[in-house]
Amino acid sequence: MTVRGQSQSAYFLAETSKITETHTLSVLVDNEPGVLARVVGLFSGRGYNIESLTVSETEHEAHVSRITIVTTGTPEVIEQIKLQLDRLVPVHKVVDLTVTGRALERELAMVKVRGKGDARVEALRLADAFRARVVDATTESFVFEITGKGDKIDEFVGLMVPLGLVEVARTGVAAISRGPEGM
């Protein structure tokens, strides 16, 4: 992009508009060594942040993987990210699921809580209310598995802190558009 004959970088774009948005991008890529590094390098090389990143092969016969990236930036920066991703050779398609407005997003977390007595009972009660499953239990701790939107998981984790939260492992966002159409 040029302004009065000068090249304009993404850094300049970030300074011109203060309104940031969070977008979920779905990127279909060749499943081969180095592709994820190239995608992540695009972000780090330009100073863009990745809030969440998930990747897995989705079409084994075609050797295609799907990368789901949640990132935050101004509308101009988000547009630049999409354009730059689309230019990478191993990228087949980039879809901004936030723009479609019809995406389902879920995250998985495992939450370890240590406690005895009333704290243990309260942790089990809250887990039931949040539809979290007990996937491991000892006489002193639980590991809960919870799926849902990120804010639901954040709330559950926050409630576990005073009850003896030990550790949290999260997968990152998996997202797909609603309806019969595919990418």
Automatic annotation (TrEMBL):
<protein>
    <recommendedName>
        <fullName>Acetolactate synthase small subunit</fullName>
        <ecNumber>2.2.1.6</ecNumber>
    </recommendedName>
</protein>
<dbReference type="InterPro" id="IPR019455">
    <property type="entry name" value="Acetolactate_synth_ssu_C"/>
</dbReference>
<comment type="similarity">
    <text>Belongs to the acetolactate synthase small subunit family.</text>
</comment>
<dbReference type="InterPro" id="IPR002912">
    <property type="entry name" value="ACT_dom"/>
</dbReference>
<comment type="subunit">
    <text>Dimer of large and small chains.</text>
</comment>
<comment type="pathway">
    <text>Amino-acid biosynthesis; L-isoleucine biosynthesis; L-isoleucine from 2-oxobutanoate: step 1/4.</text>
</comment>
<dbReference type="GO" id="GO:1990610">
    <property type="term" value="F:acetolactate synthase regulator activity"/>
</dbReference>
<dbReference type="Pfam" id="PF22629">
    <property type="entry name" value="ACT_AHAS_ss"/>
</dbReference>
<dbReference type="Pfam" id="PF10369">
    <property type="entry name" value="ALS_ss_C"/>
</dbReference>
<keyword id="KW-0028">Amino-acid biosynthesis</keyword>
<comment type="function">
    <text>Catalyzes the conversion of 2 pyruvate molecules into acetolactate in the first common step of the biosynthetic pathway of the branched-amino acids such as leucine, isoleucine, and valine.</text>
</comment>
<dbReference type="GO" id="GO:0005829">
    <property type="term" value="C:cytosol"/>
</dbReference>
<keyword id="KW-0808">Transferase</keyword>
<feature type="domain" description="ACT">
    <location>
        <begin position="24"/>
        <end position="99"/>
    </location>
</feature>
<dbReference type="InterPro" id="IPR027271">
    <property type="entry name" value="Acetolactate_synth/TF_NikR_C"/>
</dbReference>
<dbReference type="InterPro" id="IPR039557">
    <property type="entry name" value="AHAS_ACT"/>
</dbReference>
<keyword id="KW-0100">Branched-chain amino acid biosynthesis</keyword>
<dbReference type="GO" id="GO:0009099">
    <property type="term" value="P:L-valine biosynthetic process"/>
</dbReference>
<comment type="pathway">
    <text>Amino-acid biosynthesis; L-valine biosynthesis; L-valine from pyruvate: step 1/4.</text>
</comment>
<dbReference type="InterPro" id="IPR045865">
    <property type="entry name" value="ACT-like_dom_sf"/>
</dbReference>
<dbReference type="InterPro" id="IPR054480">
    <property type="entry name" value="AHAS_small-like_ACT"/>
</dbReference>
<dbReference type="GO" id="GO:0003984">
    <property type="term" value="F:acetolactate synthase activity"/>
</dbReference>
<dbReference type="InterPro" id="IPR004789">
    <property type="entry name" value="Acetalactate_synth_ssu"/>
</dbReference>
<dbReference type="GO" id="GO:0009097">
    <property type="term" value="P:isoleucine biosynthetic process"/>
</dbReference>
